[in-house]
Amino acid sequence: MTLQIQHPSVLAAVVLQDGKCVAHSAGAGKCYPQYSITKSLTSLAAGMLISEGNLSLDTAAGSLLPIPENAPLAAVTLRELLTMHSGLAQQLLFADRKNCPDHLAACVAQPVVEKRFLYNNADFYLAGRMAEAAAGEPLGEFLSRRIFRPLGIEEYALEYDTQGHYFGASGLNISTYDLAKLGQSILEKTLYPKDYLEAAARRQTVSDDGRDYGYGFWLYGDVISMNGKWGQHCLIFPARRAVIAVNADLRSVPEMTAFIRETLLPCIS
User: Fold this and answer.
1) Exposure of 233 by Cβ count < 10 A (0-12 exposed, 13-18 middle, 19+ buried)?
2) Over its length of 269 residues, how does the chain's per-residue pLDDT go in tens digits?
3) At a CB cut-off of 8 Å and minimum separation 6, what does 165 contact?
4) How far apart are CA 69 and CA 215, in angstroms?
5) Can you spell out the DSSP letters for 60-128?
6) Nearest of 247, 242, 248 to residue 265 by alpha carbon
7) What are φ and ψ of residue 15, in 5° steps?
8) Who's near 179: CB < 8 A, 6+ residues apart?
9) Is residue 68 a contact partner of residue 108, using CB atoms and an 8 Å limit?
10) In angstroms, rounded to a whole number, what is the distance separating the alpha carbons of residues 179 and 31?
11) Helix, strand, or coil (residue 11)
12) Domain extents for the chain?
């Protein structure tokens, strides 16, 4: 079914059920910025490395990254980074990263204070750096070999820091079709370690506004979600064997929720 999207801020949408495309809109094959959906991708890469014994949720950042031993950040663990509990005193590496000559140094310079949930790009940048160090190769190459190529995702872009390291918090560009493929691969639980995937998609913490969060995934009841900041969503419905992927330039959360509920959810049984 071809979706006729009337909302001017919704760019494209794809709906899968039982692994088949049941609805799609024009523009679904075009690449769009996915923003913080990148964090979910970083989590998946970390999970693969954990399952192979190259990384652990309890690995400290300082054991893999060039961080001074006496720096508070050195003791922060991968688990804390994946749940936004690094304790870094402020949010880092959002728009400020464009003028930041050394992302890692900016993180190290921050004090570590109370370890509570604080949504922070710095946490997933550091998680990505740890995964890259554990992989022993540029993480972009790891992602290409282990996730993109197996899923048939050929056109994509990633963001890198000024030293050429993968930026694990944002910067993924793929099409809405390929975003749906990524969601389907999570639903099928075959490409990634099952134990890690189940933990990543289980509540590990609660955000400041009361939402459940796993390891790089938002959770809404039994729905697993990868979210970007301006209306990028990949919603995974295990009970309905369905995936909804949507790209938008929409700053209103209620408006996005209404569009998904009224236009996309009726496409799945």
Assistant:
1) buried
2) 888 787 889 999 999 999 999 999 999 999 999 999 999 999 999 999 999 999 999 999 999 999 999 999 999 999 999 999 999 999 999 999 999 999 999 999 999 999 999 999 999 999 999 999 999 999 999 999 999 999 999 999 999 999 999 999 999 999 999 999 999 999 999 999 999 999 999 999 999 999 999 999 999 999 999 999 999 999 999 999 999 999 999 888 889 899 999 999 999 98
3) 103, 128, 129, 132, 138, 139
4) 26
5) BGGGTS---TTSGGGG-BHHHHHTT---BSS--SSGGGGG-S-HHHHHHTSPB---S----HHHHHHHH
6) 242
7) -125, 125
8) 14, 34, 37, 226, 232, 234, 245, 247
9) yes
10) 10
11) strand
12) 2-267
Q: Are strands 20-25 and 2-3 parallel, antiparallel or unpaired?
A: parallel
The Cα–Cα gap between 84 and 88 comes to 9
Q: Look up the pTM and report it.
A: 0.97
CATH-assigned architecture of domain 2-267: 3-Layer(aba) Sandwich (3.40)
Question: Length of the chain, please?
Answer: 269
Distance, in Å, from the CA atom of 98 to the CA atom of 254, rounded to the nearest integer, reads 30
